[in-house]
Every structure is written in C-alpha cells, then in structure tokens.
Amino acid sequence: MLERLGIRLSVGWRDGLISGGVLFAAAAVTGLAVYLTASSALKNEVRTNLMRVAVSAAQLTDTTTHARITRPEDQGNADYEHVRAPYFALLRGNPDLAYIYTMVRVDGKTHFIMDASIPKPGETVVPTGVMETYENSTPALEQAFATQTPQVEADTYTDKWGTFLSGYAPLMDKGRFVGLVGVDIRVDAYLKRLEGIRNAFLTGLGVAALAAIAAGLIVGRHRNAAVRVRQENAARSQQLQAMEHDRLRAEHEALQAEASRRAAMSDAAAAFEQTACRILDRVKQSVSGLHERAADVSEIAIRTREGVETAATATRNTQERARHVSEAAQALSLAISDIAERSARSNAIAHEAAHRSVDAAAKLDSLSARSAQITDIIGLIDDVASQINLLALNATIESARAGDAGKGFAVVASEVKTLSGRVAEATRRITTQVQDIQSATSETVASVGAIRSIIEDMGRTAQDVAQAVEAQTGLTARIGETIEQAAEDAQAVGCTLQRVHRSADETDQTAACVSVESAHLAEETARLSSAVETFLLAVRAA
User: Fold this and answer.
1) Residue 433: CB partners within 8 Å, gap ≥ 6?
2) How far apart are CA 357 and CA 360, in angstroms?
3) What end-to-end distance do the CA atoms of the chain give, in Å?
4) Where is the T-SNARE coiled-coil homology domain positioned along the sequence (predicted)?
5) Which whole number is the average pLDDT over 316-320?
6) Is residue 83 over pLDDT 90?
7) Which of the residue ranges 39-53, 325-339, 491-505 has the most confident prediction, judged by mean pLDDT?
8) 524 and 272 in contact (C-beta within 8 Å)?
C-alpha cells in the first residue's frame, strides 16, 4: 500500500512498522478486553447491590400496616410514615440510591402506594401519590409481578422521574404475595464510574501507541543492520553454493555410474535366481516323488509279506485239515450205517411231532379268541371309567356352587375322580398286556405252523438221507484219495511262499535305503537353495 502511495521503505523500517502495529494491536485488544470485563463487573456489582437492597427493604416492610394504606388521603398519616421509616435508613446507608417505593397490582394495572427519597443538593423530588397508576411498566417489573421473585433491570430506563436502574423484591404477608418493593439507583453515579473505566482504557491506548512507536523505531534500526549483514552473507553464500554445486554434480555423475553397475549386477542376479530356482524346484519335485515312490514300494512290500505270511499259515492249516479229513473219512464210513438206522427212527418221530403240532395250533387259536373277548371287556371298563370321571367333574362343579356346604362332597368327588383315573390307567395297562398276549399268541401260532412244516421236511429229509447214505459209501473212499493229493500240493505251495517272503524282505530293505537317500538329497537341495540366496544377497549388496 505504501508503494502505491509512492513511499518506499527499507526492509528494516518495514519490519519496525509491522512490529509497532502488532504491539499496538495486542495492547488495544488487551485493553478492550479489560474495559469490557470491568464494565460487566461494574454492572453486575450494581445489579447485585440493587437486588440485596430490594430484598432488605422487603424484609423491613410491615406488610400488615402496608395493607391498610389504600386511599390517596392515607398519604402522610401515621401508618404511611411508619411503613416507610426503614426505607430512609437504607437510603442513608446507600447514598447512590434515589428512591425506595412500593407497588401493587389491581385490575391488571400497577399502582404506587408510597415512596421514600433523600434528595441531594440541587435535586427536585416529585413524590408519588397513594394508588397513583404507573404507566411505564418495564419487562423486568412485569416479570417480578408474574413470578413473585426478585428481579433487576437489565439496562437503564427513563420515566417522568428521571433515568434509573431499578431492582424489585416481592412483599409477602404470611406467605401471601401482596406487592413489590422497588429500589432506584441514580444513573449519574453509575455512568461516572463507567466514564472512569473508559478514560483508563483510552489512556492505556495512548501509552500503547507511544510504546509501539518506540518499539518500531528500535526494531527498524536493528533490522536495517541485520539486513546489511545478511546481504554480505548472501554474497559469500552464493560463492559457496557455486562450489557446492560443482561438488554435487561430480558426486551425482559418480552415483549414476555406480547405479548403472548395480543395475547390471542386479539384472544378472535376477536371471541367475530365476534359473537356479527353476532347477531347484525341479530337483525338489523329483526328490519328493522319489520319496513318495519309495514309501509306496515299502508299503507294497509290507503288504506282500503280510499276504505271504497269511498264505503260509493257511497252507499249514490246509495240510493239518487234510490229515484230519482223511481220518474223518475213515470214521465216516463207519458212521454211515449208523446214520441209516437213525434216519428211520427220525422219520417216525417227525410224524408224531407233526400230529402234536396240529393240536397245539388249535389250542392257540382258542387262546387268541378269548384274548379278543378280554379286549372288548376292557373297552367297556374304560368307557365306565370315563363316565365316572365326567360325573366326578360335574360333582366338583356343583360342590363349588354349593360353597361351604359342598366341601365334603367335593372331597368325595375328588377321590372318585382319582379312582376313575387309576381305573383308566389300569385299563390301559391291561389293554397293553392283552395286546402283547395276542401278539405273542399270533407269533406262537405262526411258529407252530413253521415247526410243523420243518418236522415234515425233516421226515422227508430222513428218507433222502437214507437213500444218500448208500451213495456216500463209494464217495468216501474217493475223498480220502483226493485229500492226500491236496496235502502234497499244499506242501509245495508252502515252499514257494517262503521264497516270496524273502523277496518281499529284500524289496522293503531296498525301499528304505531309497527313502534315506532321498531325504539326504532333500537336505542337500535345501543347503544349495540357501547358498544361492546368500550369493544373490551378496551380489545385490555389492
């Protein structure tokens, strides 16, 4: 802005001007804050004092006597002077107070009752009349009447008696609201104190302006000296910067050459890493496959050895059984004749058992019919129990209607209901048991029929056995010869299985060696991979 006006300032004087302006602004802001705080504190102090005096005046008012002052002609009588006498004591103790007065609200209008004042020299006092209407009611006055609580005006106001700041307190007669006491303070004293605070603020601003000018001059002189030194240092710094620039350029070229060398080595290392990793991965896969194949071969050898051992055991058992069968074939020839005789006796017994099974089936059919009759009887009992339960429920309802006279009958009805429930439960159990008996009877009838069929089959089988015994005599001799040949074949199989068992052991040992070697190869592959990584790290760090 100064340049636009044609005024050019050096850097030092410009900084001095700015420093002075900042100092003055800080002092002005601080002074304004102090002025506003002091003004607010003064206002709060005056309002608090007004509130305190108003409450004191209300407490000193004889509300009973005050209530008798209701006509203009009561002004100045004994009651009037008696009520306002304490107000003069308060006025003498607070010289800044102008008036203390009382008001009442009648038919929505505000009326004065009395007032008291001690005029200062040169002041003109205009007294109020009893029941004189007040036309300049303020919001604070209205709120005091409405809430019946102490109130203080927020700002000064003006009426025909002058400009005042007022406080109000309620008049209470035995807990009943009867009016207000008003206290007015002279505004000139209040404004005089505000004027003193404002003058102090303006004086402070003047001192701050002088201090800001002095500070600006001092800062300007020091800044001009500092600017000259800085300009000299700037010239020397430019020379040093040129030298430093040459040095940095040389270092930059060296770093670029080193970076090119490192990039070439990094590319070579990356290519070597890819090739080495690919080869190592293939080796690891081959080792893993070899280890798995060795495990499979070992498992196959184990299963083969187990199968050979099982077959050898079976062969030995076959030889032993062949010997037993040969001996049994000889005994079989002796038993065939005995079997023929016993088959004849079995056939006779089977005919007798078939006759008796027919009688048993008839008796079981009769038992099943009687069980059905028992089921019908149980159903009848269950119906009777349900009717008894219903009658007991009706009896309980009737006894409840009868009240105390039906309590005994209610007990009997409850017992009858309990017994009917027990009868129903017993009936269900009997029904279940009868059903079980019927089921068992049906199963027994079926079993007897099956037994009869089996016995008849046994008779027929006995006849067939007798016929077959004769044919078995020749077969027994041929079985003995066949068993001896089977024993010789089993011995030859046992020798072959021993050779297979030895081959399986050798295969298992070979698979174990392959597995161990594949594990060693995996370890060597891991070491090779670690060595490759170490080499690549060294190459990249070089």
Assistant:
1) none
2) 5
3) 62
4) 438-500
5) 76
6) yes
7) 39-53
8) no
CA atoms of 128 and 135, how far apart (whole Å): 13
Residue type, 270: A
Q: What span, in angstroms and rounded, lies between the C-alpha atoms of 151 and 54? A: 9
Q: What's the token pair of residue 205?
A: 């601003």
Averaged pLDDT score across all residues of the chain: 80
Q: What is the amino acid identity at position 445?
A: V
DSSP 6: T
Q: What is the 3-state secondary structure (H, E, C) of 38-85?
A: HHHHHHHHHHHHHHHHHHHHHHHCCHHHHCCCCCHHHCCCHHHHHHHH
Residue with tokens 């009992």: 381
β partners of residue 169: 181
Residue at 518 is within a domain = no
How far apart, in whole angstroms, are the C-alpha atoms of residue 240 and residue 229? 17
Q: What is the CB-side half-sphere exposure of residue 194 using CA atoms within 13 A?
A: 13
Tokens representing 388 are: 């008894």
Asked if 343 contacts 461 with a C-beta cutoff of 8 angstroms, the reply is no
Distance of alpha carbon 262 from alpha carbon 394, whole angstroms: 110
Task: State both tokens at 343.
Answer: 């088959």
| Residue recorded with tokens 């005006």 | 153
Q: Is 410:398 a contact under the CB 8 Å cutoff?
A: no
* 468 residue type, one letter: A
pLDDT digits (tens, 9 = 90+) for 97-134: 989 999 999 999 999 999 999 988 877 777 889 999 99
CA–CA dist 434, 508 (Å, integer) = 70
Which of 53, 70, 86 has its CA nearest to residue 168? 53
Q: In the chain, how many domains are there?
A: 1
Can you tell me whether residue 118 is helix, strand or coil? coil
Task: Indicate whether 341 belongs to any domain.
Answer: no
Q: Which residues of 347-373 are buried (b: 16+ CB within 10 A; e: fewer)?
A: beebeebbeebeebbeebeeebeebee
In sequence order, the 6+-apart residues with CB closer than 8 A to the CB of 480 are 326, 329, 330
Q: At 15, list the tokens.
A: 């900084």
Instruction: Please spell the DSSP secondary structure of 396-430, one letter per residue.
Output: HHHHHHHGGGGHHHHHHHHHHHHHHHHHHHHHHHH
Q: How crowded is residue 223: how many other Cβ atoms within 10 Å of its Cβ?
A: 20
In this structure, what CATH number is given to the domain that contains residue 62? 3.30.450.20
78-93 vs 11-60: helix crossing angle, rounded to 10: 150
CB 213 within 8 A of CB 13: no
DSSP summary character for residue 95: T
Determine the distance from the C-alpha atom of residue 481 to the mean position of all C-alpha atoms in its chain, rounded to a whole number.
Answer: 87
Tokens read off for 250: 């040389």
Q: Is residue 138 part of a domain?
A: yes
Residue 171 parent element (H or E): strand 162-173
**Domain interval for residue 129:** 11-219
Burial class of residue 52, CB neighbours in 10 A (0-12, 13-18, 19+): middle
Comparing 20-34, 116-130, 160-174, 238-252, which segment has the lowest mean pLDDT?
20-34
Confidence of residue 14 (pLDDT cuts 50, 70, 90): confident
Tell me how far apart the alpha carbons of residues 142 and 132 are, in angstroms, rounded to a whole number.
17
Flag whether 347 is in a domain: no
